[in-house]
# Entry
Amino acid sequence: MTSLLKPLRDFLRHSVPGRFGLALTAVLVIAALAAPWLAPYNPIAQDLPVRLAAPSSAHWMGTDQLGRDILSRVLFGARVSMLVSISVVLGAGIIGLAIGSLAGYFGGWLDRFVNVVLINAFLSFPGILLAIAFAAFLGPGLGKVILALVVTGWAGYARLARAQILQAKEMEYVLAARSLGASHLRILIRHLLPNILQPVLVQATIAMAGAILAESTLSFLGVGVLAPMPSWGAMLNDARSHLFDAPHLVVFPALAVMSAVLAFNLLGDALRDWLDPRMRAFLVVTSLAR
Amino acid sequence: MLKFISLRLLFALPALWLILTMVFLLAHIVPGDPVQQMLGEGARAEDLQQLRHALGLDLPIGVQYGRYLSGIAHGNLGESFRFQQPVTRVILTHYPATLELAVFALFVCAAIGIPAGTLAAEKRGRPPDHAVGVLTLFGLSVPNFALGPVLILIFSVLLGWLPVSGRGGPSHLLLPAITLGAALAAILTRMVRSSVIEELSSDYVRTARAKGLSNAAVLFRHAFRNALIPILTILGLQFGTLLAGTIVTESIFAWPGVGRLAVQAIEARDYPLLQGCILLIAVSYVLVNLLTDLVYAAVDPRVRFE
# Structure
């Protein structure tokens, strides 16, 4: 246990933004996990007599156009956001890691096809555009949002994994493992993967912010999660028609999305600086290419 | 140079092909019957059959794909249900508004990002640098669909300075352009900062300082000029991202461009129109990237040999 805690303590001592990001992330995770106990009301229960009520002691963040409690919806919205972003990062990360590692390790025509045709093509136009199209055609729903974002999000990881494997496979420990008779699969999983995981973890942290943004964007456009389920993006979309009479409808979900994205951006930036300052330039370029 | 251009063109082809194919396949992954969805639940069987035949959806998928590609080669993207007009005509009439917004947003980004980044680099490690750092982090974290309504709330509803929505004079452009460009302005500020810092620590800057040039002359006549090359590249590459961002921004501000058209097409289940919008934005993105690379190679010969 101490071996796990020490790097964490080092990291927290090293960086103020990292501490702030980790704290925000912790708040977010707690909100998501404990939403049913923290939320003062049922997030989908309508109470029309108090519709569009301003923040008060009964409803800390006010109520929306159907009289639903905004605080409860923001808390349950964190659930949707976290569920989607974790699934997307895991799904896209594993697929990207597998494709990129195989291409980088085996090289040859497989590598050329994956790198030049697949990865280049997927990275050469904005993923969110394809995700919107995908989600629009598939129809709204939690699973479909995740699917759309995984399909359009794996290429960034694949490029990073490929580049890392290309470097790592020339190392002497790989040669040593091979001369001891280790299989390709064993070399890839037991020797190479642990050595390229650090930058992939940094990329995954920053990608959490991207996934939260993407989910909210899809929900904002009406092709995200299904209607009564609270999602920050959908809440902002509903709020647009009440800008004049109930501005609090905009403010709270906007703050929620912003803090969630900020949390993972801060955490990712700090992790990157802490793990390897030289990674910076490379990651900036790959994240821009998304 | 010719070799570089042809190679770069060749690399753009898989991307274009992938976009075309994806957009084609999208219409075929719709759960259930797209024709049924277009006509609604109570549609008669012969109407369904007739529309299916009119759209060519009763043909084998390979034949449909061939027809689709040859249609695109002839500039034919099908007919929009909602507008009862060819998709090509509908999207081309909405395209200028989108370009206008994206170009203006790019100028707003440059107007914010270049001075802010230069300032942060010059005052590196001091309060102005930290302030710029915090602001860029916020710029990166505020999604456009949250920023847009908040800006409307402040500048249109509370202060009454700028119009809420629609297309008109420059005052109509300002809020959508800031909404669209905020994230890019933040990215640009970071890039400008790091590239000016890099130039400021190079030998020729030390020489310039040694011969007694003023701080401003070193910064603007020497360091900034050289820092401009990567900055221009980022601006070019990000122009395409701006085009994609118009989908959200245009629908917030009721801006009559391709982005809002795409949202309307989603709502009306006008699949040919949606395909057309996505295709237009994606192809513009690929072409802008291509153009940026070519300009970059023309300006900086080192790129060609990599």
